[in-house]
Design brief:
The complex is a heterodimer.
Chain A (H helix, E strand, L loop, with lengths): L1 E4 L4 E4 L4 H4 L10 H4 L4 H14 L3 E11 L4 E14 L5 E10 L1 H22 L3 H13 L8 E6 L6 E7 L8 H4 L4 H7 L3 E4 L19 E7 L9 E7 L7 H35 L8 H11 L3 E5 L5 E4 L1 H7 L22 H16 L2 E9 L5 E12 L6 E9 L1 H22 L3 H16 L3 E7 L6 E4 L11 H9 L15 E8 L2 E8 L8 H38 L9 E6 L10 E7 L5 E7 L4 H20 L4 H14 L7 E8 L4 E7 L5 E3 L5 E3 L4 E2 L13 E4 L5 E5 L11 H14 L5 H11 L10 E7 L4 E6 L5 H14 L4 H22 L7 E8 L3 E8 L9 H4 L4 H8 L2 E7 L2 E9 L3
Parallel strand pairs in A: 24-27
Antiparallel strand pairs in A: 1-2, 1-5, 3-4, 4-5, 6-7, 6-10, 8-9, 9-10, 11-12, 11-15, 13-14, 14-15, 16-17, 16-19, 18-19, 20-30, 21-22, 22-23, 23-24, 24-28, 25-26, 25-29, 29-30, 31-32, 32-33, 33-35, 34-35
Chain B lengths: L4 E7 L5 E9 L4 H11 L6 E11 L1 H8 L5 E5 L4 H7 L1 H4 L1 E4 L6
Parallel strand pairs in B: 2-3, 3-4, 4-5
Antiparallel strand pairs in B: 1-2
Helix pairs in contact in B: 1-2
The chains are: A alpha+beta, B alpha/beta.
Chain lengths: ~900, ~100
Amino acid sequence: MVLWWGPEFHFIYNDAYRPFLGDKHPALGKPGSQVWGEVWQIIGGPLQSVLDTGQSTYSQDELLPLNRRGYLEETYYSYSLSPLHDDAGAVRGVFTAVSDTTDGIIGARRLAALNEIGAVASRARHLPEALRMLTEVLGRCGPDVPFAAAFLREDGSGKMTPRVVSPAGGTDVTRAMLARWPVGDVMRSGQPVTISGLDGQYGSLPSGGWATSPTDAMVLPLTGDLGSAPIGAMVLAASAGRALDDGYASFLSLVAQQTAAVINSALAYESQRARAEELAELAGLRSYEARWRAALINSISEAFFVLDDDGAVVEINDAFAEVLGYGRDGVPYRPRYPWWPPPDRFPEAHARVAEAQEQMLRQSRGDFIAPMMHRDGHLLWVEATFNEIPDPDSGRRMVAGTLRDVTTEHYAGQRESALAAMGMLLARADNVDAAIAGAIGELRRLWRARRVLAVAWDGRPEPEVVSTDGAERWPDLPAGLRTSINALKDRPLLTPTTGDQASAGITLDYPGGLLALWLDLDPAVPYTAGDRTLLALLCGYLGPALHRLRQADEQRATVIAMQRAFLSPAQLPPGFAARYEPAAPPLEIGGDWYDVAELPDGRIGIVVGDCVGHALESAITMGQLRSACRAMLLQDVGPAQTLKAMDKFAAVIPGGMSSTVFCGVLEPRTGDLVYSSAGHPPPIVAQPGGEIRLLDEARSPALGVLPYIERSEARWHLRPRATLLLYTDGLVERRRARLDVGIAQAAEVLAAGRPDPVRDVADRLMTQLAPAAGYEDDIALLIYRYPGPLELRFPAGTDQLAPARADLRDWLGRCNLSVRTAQDVLIAAGEAVANAYEHGSGGASGQPITLTATATATDLYLTVTDRGRWKDSAPIPGAYRGHGLPLMRTLMTEVTVSPGQDGTMVAMRLRITP
Amino acid sequence: MTTPVSFSACRRPDGSAALAVHGEIDLSNSDALASELAAALPEQGRLVVDLTGVEYLDSAGLTALFAHASRIEVLVTELLAPTLAISGLSDITVVHEVGRSSG
């Protein structure tokens, strides 16, 4: 991330950007033209235009020749320039989001270069033509190969002569200087040599379009056909704009390999043609016409075939056998030909070649490209041209055609799109796991691998395995495979394994350690040196992306952990329900809060508050105010004094001014509440009979506004089974409506919820008050019904019956029930507890019994649960002593007995008649 | 704590045997009620069982009363009256509902 500030574009950047600066760091705060002098003529103009017009600009893959490591470097960037406004709306600076696209640009260019060189083989008919075309093609590859000279050994003398010098013309490299290169040594040893620090000893080399001349070059052997002795050596200079690193060296090595392949192909063609010329002398002898014809056909270097009108291949030449592996002794080949890819393993390929066949039988001439399977089992792509001809003897329709192997060109196209696809996938991934899963999927698709494994060593005892085949664990992999994968750790990074067509392995840097990729290849799919280069390139993309994503993951985890520290309590005392919805996802916190603080003597501090400001800032303020409020409540100074202390605090913390707070202390044993409000909307009380009251006394201004103001307290007695609602204005405030309209709506929902448990009322408030488009503001709400539920837990012993009854009687008293009602509940509960004791524990004390009692405005709910073991499976009612269950059923409105594996629960409800 | 209960057996002014109970009767002490009842039963005539001082009585206590249903007369306040009615004891035993006792 980068900022330019002010008319001089002072340069501001963060730590993540430092690696881009190289030697320029430290550059913080320096004028842009000073930091980026070498490219200021490119970027200065656009920056100025953003400052002048306020319009954003975007540049894609722009070449910026940077001097940041002591030399002028060829690097490409995609970047956006966006205006930064001050509060008055004037443009004061420019914000830049930049990504380095160098690897993609240069990688694609180099692959294209390799393909062009390779393509010469199919177009050149003889050696001089091949050499001329090579010179021309290499001349067009200046940015990556500024200078090239290929030397071939003369057959007779053994001397090395330069046969390709690129770029032709435009270089003043003399023969004498060419002769200085150690090409003879390299050809004899067969080992490449790197020469660093060129300073004119080989002449002044062309720069390939770069501003500076090459400083490094390699001399590589040109291998002979099929691994025989080298036929020469090749000098390749590296562009001064890129360091001659492993990737560049691999590329140059491939250039030499491709050049050698082209030359060998032309040499082979020449010898073939010489032979054909010899055979042509036989042409005059008609008595050898048949052999002549066959020899002529065979002398054509392209694969040749003839089909009869049934589609059977009746004639082929040696070249055909070389391309597809099927020789003349198998003629005639009837459809379906053995070189068609089997439909079970390669359905799309099979379909395609079948379609091509149709084309050949229907049209009189044409061409197509189709996949085929060589006799030895590997896939290749061929391009065929065909012509209809009448048989000279019978006049029947025959088809004659040629075909050639275009596998390299076909896969070259695939490779370019593979690089692009991997780049897009990594740009879209937003965490490490997604990036790895996506990358191994791409690799599998690209090489039709059977399976791809990613194995990560990051310091834990066992490496982590991700597979395209679903979940796999390291210990479950076969021992031989684990050995092979472990052996990858000894290889240099980004260096694919060689030598085995059944598998490919490569390692790359991984946050915290090392990542290895293991591909189980399909032997039928080609996997060549070009594929290894591609694999290395793709992994070169993957490594930095994983580092970037790991950083993002860590930042996210930090943010979430910090948010949790700010959150209001989730565990609430009995009788409370709460909801909290911040307005700005993905943040989990906002400026609103609720708090429930249990004081040492059993009273409970209840608070709801609202800080002004945008999401993150107000959340930080909220956290501080909440802590201060809680601390003061625990000091037991009372709500008014608590708000006064928060006044002083709010005045000095950022964003604290004008925060509103409602603060109260509740005595849950009596329902008494003492409270004070600092500018906060009044809590709502729904009486058991349905009337609504607002707690709107003891109001004073919001925090910090008048720091020395006196704050008062008011008292309220919660009637038994009344419901209290504390909330923030997000719940009730609506645009274009008065606040009391929203408050009245909330009051209505609260009153309607009198018979219901408080958690259901909380849900209903959130859903029924929500505007159509969702809430705009944070919401915090806290609901309490007095008395809170009774929860008793006691061992099953007859000595526990009386104390439990006493607690229940005491609680029932706080519910304001008639004497009769209380007595009925007491008896029903007593029966249930006695039965729980009797059968639940078989008379043996020890297993605890749980009793809960809850009161709403309209009903009383009781549950008694025991956790005893049953000796038999007799239904519970039968086990009850004669009078117990009937008593319960008569006294209570509803009784449900639920036996279970772990015990029995008796649930009872009594409708309270007012 | 154990369930608080006290029993006192005496003779009423008209000579009938009586057993007064104060406190609460539940599973923990219903056996005690049963044995007190058995001990206080006269050889002839009924036993007056005064439960006006009982704050709590559930089926454990009812079982003890049912055992001697034909030989007792029960005094209760409005607090216990419904319990006895619901259980059916009132149908087979003489039950008098009176005001709260003071003792």
